[in-house]
Design a protein that fits this description.
The protein has helices spanning 22-27, 53-65, 68-74, 79-88, 100-106, 110-122, 145-149, 166-176, 194-206, 237-243; strands at residues 7-8, 15-16, 35-36, 44-50, 92-95, 130-132, 155-157, 181-190, 210-219. By secondary structure, it is an alpha/beta fold. It has one domain (29-226). The longest helix is centred in the N-terminal third of the chain and has 13 residues, at 53-65. The chain is globular and about 60 Å long.
Length: 252
């Protein structure tokens, strides 16, 4: 007798007949509106998903273990967000560089994977404008907002981006004509915005007229205070603590 294959859903960790159960599929939170990160040097932010509840669990598993099965469910852009990104008319999509050691351990360069996905959706070139100061900088995972804000800047302009680069001349022409250079700066997951802000500082030092629009696959709602509570799933601790001031079960 042939028994059907039984999976454990990566979202709820319960047995399921599918790689991702229907309940978790329905729980994925797409984002359709841009908003302000309130970070110096950054323009309006355009995340693809709201990283809360089940969506947050799925994003973390995708990032740490290269969840190829999860990719088909998470890499989907709301049409309204796609239209907003088109209207920006950015010159290029710039991924946040990541440590080669960490990318090898995870099995993928998550930020570049997200940047490639967004670049394909808005038909813009992907440009590796940034590089790391050293091979394996201190990563931001698990750090508080204060630690993130006061860590050394790990980024620099890539040596591969020079006058010979196809986009260099276009950017130079915009500078001499007094036009801004809109760029879409992409991280995998946005927690506090500190990584994006530090990368923006380096880019502005190289391209003072750059207008940098941050983006990522997921954004934690704790850095989006103006988001209406109706847009959050009911199981998000932050929403419950807003309605009940005695509760303290905010995200760590």
């Amino acid at each position: 007798m042939h028994w059907p294959t039984l999976f454990f859903c990566p979202g709820c960790l319960l047995p399921s007949m599918m790689s991702l159960c229907d309940s978790c599929k329905r729980s994925i939170q797409p984002n359709s509106l841009p908003f302000d990160l309130e970070r110096e040097g950054l323009e309006t932010c355009y995340p693809v998903l709201i990283s809360a509840g089940t969506t947050r669990n799925l994003l973390r598993r995708w990032k740490e273990k290269r969840g190829n099965i999860l990719r088909s469910h998470l890499f989907r852009m709301d049409p309204a967000l796609q239209r907003s990104l088109f209207q920006l008319d950015v010159v290029a999509v710039v991924p946040i560089p990541q440590s080669p050691n960490r990318s090898e351990r995870r099995g993928h360069a998550s930020s570049r994977e997200v940047a490639r996905f967004i670049a394909e959706r808005i038909d813009r070139p992907l440009v590796d404008l940034l590089d790391l100061q050293k091979d394996d900088p201190a990563h931001m995972t698990g750090k508080s907002r204060f630690e993130r804000d006061h860590s050394p800047n790990p980024f620099r302009i890539s040596e591969n981006f020079s006058a010979a680069h196809p986009l260099f001349q276009l950017m130079e022409e915009r500078v001499f004509s007094g036009k801004d250079i809109p760029l879409l700066l992409v991280d995998d997951l946005i927690t506090s915005g500190a990584t994006l802000a530090r990368a923006a500082t380096v880019i502005h030092g190289f391209l003072p007229r750059a207008r940098i629009y941050p983006s990522g696959l997921g954004l934690r709602p704790s850095v989006r205070p103006e988001l209406p509570e109706s847009e959050f799933p009911s199981d998000v601790p932050e929403v419950r603590s807003r309605s009940d001031p005695d509760r303290s079960d905010h995200f760590p």
